[in-house]
Amino acid sequence: MKKIESVLIAGAGAIGLMVAGKLFESIPEGILVLAGGERLERYRRDGFFINGKKFNFKLSGDAPAGAVDLVIVASKYYSLNDVIDGICPFIGPDTVIVSLLNGISSEEIIGAKYGRERLPLSMVIDTDAQHNGNRVNYSRLGIINFGDADGIVCERDERIAEFFTRTSYPFEYHKTDMKRAFWYKFMINVGANQTSALLRLPYAAFKKKSPRRIPEAQALLEKAMREVIAVANARGIALNDTDIENFFAVLEGLSDDGFTSMCQDVLAGRKTEVELFGPEILRLGLKHGVQTPVNEMLALAVSALEKRAFMKYG
Questions:
Q1: What is the extent of the structural domain holding 102?
Q2: Is residue 286 domain-resident?
Q3: How many angstroms separate the Cα of 204 from the Cα of each of 59, 94, 211, 298, 302?
């Protein structure tokens, strides 16, 4: 089995830099960050700061083209097509790809160009990483979860597991039930991202044990997640009430003053990834005959907030 020794990080946001910084501790010469054009100049000049520590990662624009063993895609969804083009010079016959994007569609989109067999289902959970320019801060290192969509144990995933073990990066390798875990993360994203973005609230507002808890905000989040469970069940994926309880338990460990990625985008007046969540559940709900009125409302409201940030009134 060919070991993974070189990694291209495609996406220098909260998740990409969090992962890059941790892997750098074990294989500093093996980490490459995708960068070209204006970003290349800016990254050269400013470097990156992760939890206050400066990192000067090697940049793809300064490196000769050549295959890497692993590509970790951690961009925003709206940048995915550019990223797919950007990673092309680094894809070789044995390159595997791990996508840490939100939503449930990036593996299919990336796989359409490079081959679906290169990608397990994958995601990152249990982190409060915050991104501002070239700076990322987190108190909880996200756990990467991955596994085959069809529950097949294969060399690709064994290589990934060996690599994360060797580099001490926290992970969970789901050998039989990754599709369920994948939808669990999707349930969280749909509920927490949209609700927090609309209300512009930090994690504390949704924690059951927080003195800053807002029950109405928590109820709205839970209603959105229950619609995801209904759609998942219609697709044969056995999410249930225990998954909601598990989410709230995980939430207790995140920083009270942290924000979801979508809430960060709304607060900063940036484009969001709303199309990955409410509209996707609405589409799948229509397909399976499941009503999703809460997510329809959330999607419309967050989309309106996003557009408002780019318009001027009176």
A1: 7-176
A2: yes
A3: 37, 44, 8, 20, 20
What pTM does this model have? 0.89
CATH number at residue 264: 1.10.1040.10
DSSP 3-state of 156: helix
Structural domain count of the chain: 2
Give the integer Cα–Cα distance in Å for 30 and 7.
6
Residues 69, 56 share a domain: yes
Q: Residue 161: phi, psi to the nearest 5?
A: -65, -40
273 with 103: CB under 8 angstroms? yes
In a domain, 313, yes or no: no
Q: Two tokens at 269?
A: 């007046």
CATH of the domain at 122: 3.40.50.720
pLDDT in tens, the chain (314 residues): 899 999 999 999 999 999 999 999 999 999 999 998 888 999 999 999 999 999 999 999 998 889 999 999 999 999 999 999 999 999 999 999 999 999 999 999 999 999 999 999 999 998 889 888 899 999 999 999 999 999 999 999 999 999 999 999 999 999 999 999 999 999 999 999 999 999 999 999 999 999 999 999 999 999 999 999 999 999 999 999 999 999 999 999 888 999 999 999 999 888 899 999 999 999 999 999 999 999 999 999 999 998 887 776 65
Structure tokens at 84: 């797919």
Helices 215-234 & 178-188 angle (0-180, nearest 10): 150
- Indicate the residue type of 232: A
Query: In degrees rounded to 5, what are phi and psi of residue 261?
Result: -60, -40
